[in-house]
Amino acid sequence: EAAWLAQPMGLAVDGDRLYFVDSESSAVRWVDLGADGEVHTIVGTGLFDFGDADGVGEAALLQHPQGSTVADGVVYVADSYNQKIKRVDPRTRQARTLAGTGQPGRQDGPASRAAFHEPGGVSAARGRLYVADTNNHAVRVVDLLRGEVSTLELRW
Description:
mainly beta
C-alpha cells in the first residue's frame, strides 16, 4: 500500500515509466505511471546497503546516486560517491560501470580511465551523456558510441 522513499532525485520518463534514483537507499527505482502507480526497485536493497559493485538486482551496489536519465531503454545513473556513471538495464536489472575509475579526479579519455568527482546529474541527447561533474565544476560528455569522455568547454 505504501512505498518508503529516501531522498528521491534524478527524474527521467520513458513511456509509462518514471525512473528515479533513491539516493539515501542507493537504489534505482521506477513508478508505473498507469493506473496502479506501483513503485519497483531495479537495484538497491535498503537504507544502509551501499557500496560499489556491478551485478544484477540485489548484487549490484551504488553509493548515493544523484542523477538519472533514460536513453534507448537504458537508465544511466550518476553514482555520485563512487565517482562513476553506471548503466542500468531495467529489463535484466543488470548494473555495470560505464565510465569512471572510482577515484575522484578529472581525467578525459577512454571511459574506463576517465575520472569524475561526485557526478551529480546526467542527461542524454544524440548518443551522448552530459554529466554535471559537481566537484570539478564542469560538464563532462560521455560519447556512448566511442566510449570516450571529454570536458565540455563553456564560454561566456
